[in-house]
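Worked example

This section walks through a single chain of length 220. The input is the sequence exactly as stored; nothing has been trimmed or padded.
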Amino acid sequence: MVSSLIHALVSRGSTILAEHSSGKRDFSQAVQTILSKIPPNNSKLTYVWEQYLFHYVSEGGLTFLVMADDSVGRRMPFAFLADLQRKFTTAYSPDIIFDVPAYGLNEYSPQIGSLMHEYSTSPPTDALSQTQNELNQVRDIMVHNVEQILSRGERIDLLVDKTDTLSGQAWAFRRGARDVRRREFWKNQRILALSIFVGLFFIWIIVAQFCGAGLNHCSN
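Given that input, the structure is written out below as tokens.
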């Protein structure tokens, strides 16, 4: 019988501590992509990739993730994750969990595999009921498409680069516009001053014809 739970792991951030896979296909790229996207705050999320669903629970700096066939829905995988979280944090103290290197607790892989088999064949009824209630209460469990992340990652980076470039160009344009306005302002001021000077000069010439260059004849 093919297991409906295919791949499961426990990680500290993006550092995988323990992992088990019941399939032969390599899902490491998808797994690493998802782990890199998980926010540091507590969250529950489902990612879609081909006919598979990646479900995870992130809490207290640890991430519990399982990849399942989409035919099983989300109730059973999240029940599995809750059970895995409870058993793993009982088996190891925080001092050990947050100190070991990558795959430092991979000795727990057989237990993950055993739990995957249990939930794939005959999941506990109580666990399913409890998880269904939690899923009904939690409305922010989102579904994302991993293929979009994988295919658009480079485009997103490129878009961000272009956005930064355009922002820089816009800032340069605004600065250039201010410089142009400032130059035009002082140019107009010089023209105005020159016009006033020329106007006064012509007035002086006209008055000087009647009053003399020193304007002394008009005063008499």
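What to look for: Residues 153-164 have pLDDT under 50 and may be disordered.
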